[in-house]
Amino acid sequence: MSDTSRHSAPAPGLSNPGGQTPANGPTGADRVRQVVVLLGALLAVAGAALGSGAGGGQPVSEAADGALSADATIVAPGSPAFTIWTVIYVGLVLFAVVQALPGRADDARLRATAWWVLASMLLNAAWIGVVQAGWLWGSVAVIACLVAVLSVLLVRLVRLAPSRRLDMIVTDVTVGLYLGWVCVATLANTAAALAVSEVGGLGLGPSGWGAVLVVLGALVAVAVALFGARRPSITIPVGLAAGWGIAWIAVARVQGPLVDETVAVVATVAAVLAAATPVVLALRR
């Protein structure tokens, strides 16, 4: 093999993502995307932080008459679980900065995902606004849209290999944590809306539905791990974030006013399943 062919060979799993043809260079649309996503991300994260009470306003846990507090429903995570948002917000800002770097303008993977990441941030900010207004069923609709957007991102990131390790970290890890946490939050959000609507036990009772929901959350993480097994950089963060949220549901059911041993035990097992499955699959590969 000649020196030229040796040095031009793509790095395994990083270059020529997904068998794509090389980009033809940055366009005006690429430059616009970089600027809009950067500025939009900064504004969306700042707005979400202020709307969550960081600036002295009403915390989300106190909005809607406390419907989303740690003891509002049988599947509400304990308050410390929400510290994961700090990690997610930092990751989102880092993503926005990295995608705006000059060498990333024509990156095929960023072209395919940057607008979707911005859409997810705007939906998150919208969710906080809807909750602060007390519209719980509206918040369920918004968070369902957020899950859909993050699912599109998951599919695109699994199909397209990263060209740089830094981009892989700030994109895959951030989106993975984001998706894993929002899946658990969706269960808690829906349970809160049902509780406020006073729908009753629906045949299974609180403990039964609590157990079903935490198992469902774990199965989502397992499904993601199976679908994206070739991208453990995404699936492991999804599992860790989902496991983190479910584990804090277990903690909240043994500490505090809303104790439920059945949900606590099932949630503990579900948390281990969610966190361990993508790691085991990655090690097997």
From TrEMBL:
Transmembrane ranges? 35-54, 74-98, 110-129, 135-155, 175-196, 208-227, 234-251, 263-283
Gene3D superfamilies, alphabetically?
TspO/MBR protein
**Keywords, alphabetical:** Membrane, Transmembrane, Transmembrane helix
The ranges of region (Disordered) come to 1-27
Protein name per its UniProtKB record: TspO and MBR related proteins
Name its species. Answer: Isoptericola hypogeus
